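Problem 12. The chain below contains 260 residues. Write out its predicted structure in token notation.
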Amino acid sequence: MSDLMQLEVNNGIGILRFTQPERRNPYSIAFVDELVAALDAAQADDAVRAVVMTGGDHFSSGGDLVGFQTEMAKGARATYNLVDKVHAGGRAAYGFNKPLIAAVNGVAYGAGMSLALCADVIVAAEDARFCEVFAKVGGCPDTGSSWLLQQRIGAGAARLLILTGREISGKTAHQMRVVEDCVPADQTEATAIALATEMAANPMFGIESCKRVMRQSAECTFEEALETECRAQTVLLRAHDFPEAMKAFSEKRKPKFRDC
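Solution.
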């Protein structure tokens, strides 16, 4: 693997570690490429019966807004292709056939929160910080979160988090059923590994079938949600407020939004 993440296998459990916690593991195109490759490798390896994703001190701060600007400057088509490329990470995680556990410490913002939501189960530190930050910067949910969050907590609670862009702690996320387990920060990874080990002990064909049935019984397809997000996000990324938010971020000032 690259300097962005590493996959190690111990006793049938794959540990997928995001290895830039000092940068809060930004969700860049390179990150997506490595994520897809790692999950494909784990899927193909019969020795891997479950995977835990963890980012160390921070899970992921979300989209690499500064890094995305080069493609966005090329226009709407390039921006659409960029968003669709970013979505490949969510597709790989959500479509992973074996048990997938997210162990979340620190921040899980935007696409980082979406990636955690793609897991079968999320184990969060009590002081973890979750945020559907999209509305705060003039965008809309992407990477599947508009669908994934409603699947977990219902439409009303999902709208509350998405429309406010409110940050919530791991404890609050557990109370709202965004995450399935909440533990002290120094126990997150161990708890996730124990849960993955419990799942991995079951017959793998049955486990894979369970996941397939549950995906197919959802109210709509994940791809339909991704396409809806991709079209809306493409427009918003080329509007005023999202580019203004990125410019303000680069210039270390408060953005001047125009609601357009």
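Discussion. The mean pLDDT is 93. Students who got a different answer should revisit the alignment rule from Section 12.3.
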